[in-house]
Amino acid sequence: MLRSMRHNIKYLSITLWLVIASFIATIFLVWGMQSAGPGSGRDVAVAATVNGERISRLEFQRAYEREREALRQLYGDRWNEDLARELNVPTRVLDGLITSRLLLQEAERHGLSVSREELAAVVMENPLFAEEGKFRPERYRRLLEANRLTPERYEEAIRQGLLQQKLATLIQASAKVSEAEAWEAFRTAKEKVRVAYVSLPRSTENKARLEDLQGRVGQKETPWETLLQNSGLKVMRPDPFTFGAAVAEPPDSRAFHLAILRLKKGEWSPVVEGGKSHFLIRLLDREAVPRQAFEREKETWTQKLLSEKRLQLWVAWVHEVKRRSKIDIAQELG
Hints:
With 334 residues, the chain is of the alpha+beta class. It folds into two domains: 2-175 and 315-329, Porin chaperone SurA, peptide-binding domain (Triger factor/SurA peptide-binding fold, Orthogonal Bundle), CATH 1.10.4030; 192-287, Chitinase A, domain 3 (Roll), CATH 3.10.50.40. 57% of the residues lie in helices and 12% in strands. The chain has 14 helices and nine strands. It has a four-stranded antiparallel beta sheet. The protein has a three-stranded antiparallel beta sheet with strand order 2-1-9. A hairpin with a 2-residue loop joins strand 1 and strand 2. The relative contact order is 0.13.
């Protein structure tokens, strides 16, 4: 495999940049690290400024061409200019560069740094630069040269990736998951429910029709089964299912499932508005989940929730950093 890499510079180029990107915790960072670093001193045109710090057009163009080449290889024969416009590549690339610059500024503000030992360890652990299981400096220099990279530029990209990884770890450290939260998530995901429901295509008239029916099904004078039968609507009774599982009939499964979460056994939902339909749902039964089953999977579910919380915390934090920052984009790039 390594032999074939030596003869395929394009593939190696993508691989090297993916190695850099692998240090980054979220998609924001992946886009940001596709930059090779600031443009040369000869480039005076500016693509954007981030809190007064410039992103040159040369830097943007380099990242843009790399991204197009990566997408061209990813999509193969399906790649064309229409797809490029659909993916909005220039905006994605520039947003990545801006985000990366912001995160590096924040890393500096938090006093984070990368030691020479940390940087060397990452470079030397890269299997691309190894022969017979050992790091080979000559191979390292040769592969970088084949990809028109200097060790200084490559190591600077690695350093930036490590800084951003440290920043993500710092910001995400406050995320916590209690046992009660893990149990609730487990119970919600595992318990099975049985429901009966009716639905109509979304319209003002159909919503009013279901609201009228909803007001009558709670009355004890007439059994709800009789009321639904007399309404002329087809009553659906799917097999028991877990939250989020596919249910054949509802075209708006998210709204359908969220409504069921709020119901107690025997309750009717208010009229549920989906994207295409209105629903009226009755929860017939919930099958309790044994606590012992949770105890066996508690650690797995705790870690799953913790990962989700960390990601949510990170995304919200990055969004807030962007919101409070001064970002100016060149008009023809914005």
